[in-house]
Design a protein that fits this description.
Elements lengths: L5 H4 L10 H14 L8 E2 L2 H8 L3 H13 L3 E3 L5 E3 L43 H13 L15 H14 L9 E4 L2 H12 L5 E6 L3 H9 L3 E8 L2 E2 L1 H7 L5 E4 L13 H14 L2 E5 L24 E6 L11 E4 L5 H11 L5 H12 L2 H28 L4 E2 L7 E6 L4 H10 L5 E2 L11 E6 L6 H15 L7
Parallel strand pairs: 5-6, 5-8, 8-9, 9-10
Antiparallel strand pairs: 1-3, 2-3, 4-11, 6-7, 10-11, 12-13, 13-15, 14-15
Helix pairs in contact: 2-4, 3-4, 5-12, 6-12, 7-8, 7-11, 13-15
């Protein structure tokens, strides 16, 4: 048996929102659970410990009462207390954190890492406007707002989205065709459950966004990777690989991750295939607004006359990822089927968040923000591309692009993974194109986001860091 030395175990944060008695309770319990304190070890009386720690006696007494109620202590009044025998435990081995690879759509908790994919320009979002609208929504909160909203989404937001899509993406739709979801994965899951039977197969782009394959496979469907060329997904190869496919998931505006735009002929061929086979096309239009040469192209869904296209849009790349709001637009013939599916699998999205987004759109802030970001991204793309091209020289070729939110720096096939790993070791966050292939990669490239490169000077410094990091190993060209 040993005596408890309070200052060896107890330290407190007076500024913490956790009450002091809860801090004492937690530290003693942790010492017991890890075997530092064992059954029979003495704990000072409340008066003695309070005096030693400079706390009120009632604070220590509250902690002891909680520990005693949970069976950790045997309180013996003035004689002190001891650790209860029934809480004998084997000391727990310290947990070793598991090292995970950098995710494809990583959202930095503090600040974005340089070249990190999946993030819009966080510094340029109108936070004050958003905060003002959020405060207004909170002040106007009524009892009816506390009731769970429809699994299909708030009717006001569905109306705002339908109006926006008619003007900006050429999609003629009604609010009842719009379904609000919690992010792209939730949207794709809803679509797959509504349209596919267990075991049915779907074309996916190769290279393509890995979560698309993962979601389909996880739900019991069969993703079939189909090669992508300079015109988009290869329809002929898809028909040869999986003639029985019931769905194709594509990113026609800016192919993820190559950023190429699907050609008009390939778009028509895809629609013809869907019409002839009775299959469905899922259009993931994650950043279709951001085209820097001419006006944004109309959505594939705007060309659909046979009602075979399901359109998926997201607020993550336009506003900010923490919203976790996306939407699905379905043909009129599928509205009831999607209502049934959403009623079964969707819990809906937070009504307060939907209301703020709706106000943001209706007051004109959404369109103004997109227009401002289109100009800003064109500038950031240009000076980031120039800086990287100058620093990398013949080691990489910056591919031209009409839109998108990242640069594609082509490198020797098979070299991109090692290069990306080296750059991550130096605090940079590009991705390797190889990680987007379902099978052996056919091309090599580094994918580097420019959205949060805020000045030409920063672009030059980051490019210098890239060159310096890669010079530490053998050239790849």
């Amino acid at each position: 048996m040993q005596d408890f030395a309070a200052r060896d175990y107890l330290s407190f944060d007076a500024a913490s929102p956790v009450p002091l008695y809860r801090q004492i309770y937690a530290r003693v319990r942790e010492a017991v659970d890890t075997g530092v304190l064992r059954p029979g070890d003495r704990i000072p009386a409340t008066r003695v410990l309070a005096q030693e720690l400079g706390l009120a006696r009632g604070t220590v007494a509250a902690a002891y009462a909680l520990l005693s109620a949970e069976g950790y202590l045997e309180v013996r009044g003035a004689a002190g207390s001891v650790i209860a025998a029934r809480h004998a435990s084997t000391p727990r081995a310290p947990m070793t954190p598991r090292v995970r690879p950098l995710p494809l759509d990583v959202g930095g908790a503090i600040a974005p890492l340089p070249f990190q994919l999946g993030l819009p320009a966080l510094d340029a979002f109108p936070r004050k406007v958003w905060a003002r609208m959020a405060a207004r929504a909170a002040r106007s909160l009524q009892t009816r707002h506390l009731v769970k909203d429809s699994a299909f989404g708030a009717s006001s937001l569905r109306t705002a989205i339908a109006s926006y899509l008619q003007l900006s993406r050429g999609i003629d739709c009604m609010p009842c065709q719009v379904f609000i979801t919690s992010g792209y994965r939730d949207a794709l899951g809803l679509v797959a459950r509504a349209l596919l039977a267990p075991g049915e197969r779907a074309w996916t782009e190769d290279p393509g966004f890995p979560p698309t394959r993962q979601v389909l496979k996880g739900l019991g469907f069969g993703p079939v990777p189909v090669p992508v060329d300079e015109h988009g997904i290869d329809i002929a190869r898809g028909a040869a690989l999986a003639p029985d496919a019931r769905m194709a998931v594509v990113t026609p505006a800016h192919q993820s991750p190559l950023t190429i735009t699907m050609s008009p002929a390939r778009r028509q061929a895809l629609l013809d295939w869907a019409q002839a086979t009775g299959a469905w096309v899922v259009e993931d239009d994650y950043d279709g607004e951001f085209r820097y040469t001419g006006r944004p192209l109309p959505a594939l869904a705007s060309m659909d006359r046979g009602e075979r296209v399901v359109y998926c849009g997201s607020f993550s790349k336009v506003m900010f990822p923490a919203l976790r709001l996306s939407y699905v637009v379905v043909p009129t013939s599928l509205v009831e089927r999607f209502e049934d599916a959403a009623s079964l699998v969707s819990n809906g999205s937070p009504a307060l968040t939907q209301g703020i987004v709706c106000d943001f759109m209706q007051d004109g802030h959404f369109v103004r923000h997109i227009q401002a970001m289109r100009r800003l991204y064109a500038e950031r793309r240009d000076y980031t591309a120039r800086a990287l091209a100058a620093a990398l020289g013949s080691r990489a070729e910056i591919a031209p692009q009409a839109g998108g939110l990242h640069l594609v720096a082509r490198v020797a096939p098979g070299a991109d993974r090692a290069m990306a790993e080296r750059l991550r070791e130096h605090g940079l966050a590009p991705m390797a194109l190889a990680d987007f292939y379902a099978g052996p990669p056919e091309r090599g490239a580094l994918l580097l986001s420019f959205t949060n490169v805020t000045s030409p000077a920063q672009a030059g410094e980051l490019a210098r860091r890239v060159a310096q990091a890669l010079d530490m190993q053998a050239p790849y060209d």
